[in-house]
Amino acid sequence: MSVITNSIALAAPYYNLILFAIAIILFLKLIPNATRRMYALPWNVLFVAVIVFLIEQLLSVLRQTGIVYSPVHINGFFQLVIASLLVYCLLIQKEHVQHTG
Q1: pTM score
Q2: N or C: which end of the chain has fewer CB within 10 A?
Q3: CA-CA distance, 48 to 57, in Å (whole number)?
């Protein structure tokens, strides 16, 4: 692997944690502004997907620093859970739109 590839592989989990912090701030601003007319279940499922993403990234950072040993293929399981939650979120929203529209 080249130097650039190694640099990106080392820095990406840290950048992802920064993006996670931004996403949490946005969720915290969204929740108090929720009205009774807002269908919140898809947002709750999306929040769970973001939490799974946090666990995946923390595990990656801890593995890189040598604090925790975990096999690399476990990231695939986390990504499968995240993708499944996002698809479920879309299906929930589609069902809600069909019933209300």
Answers
A1: 0.79
A2: C
A3: 14
Q: How many CB atoms lie within 10 A of CB 27?
A: 13
Alpha helices by DSSP H, 1-101:
3-30, 41-65, 74-100
Domain count, the chain: 1
Determine contact, residues 85/49, Cβ cutoff 8 Å.
Answer: yes
For residue 33, the enclosing domain spans 3-100
**Residue 52 CB contacts under 8 Å (≥ 6 apart), including other chains:** 78, 81, 82, 85
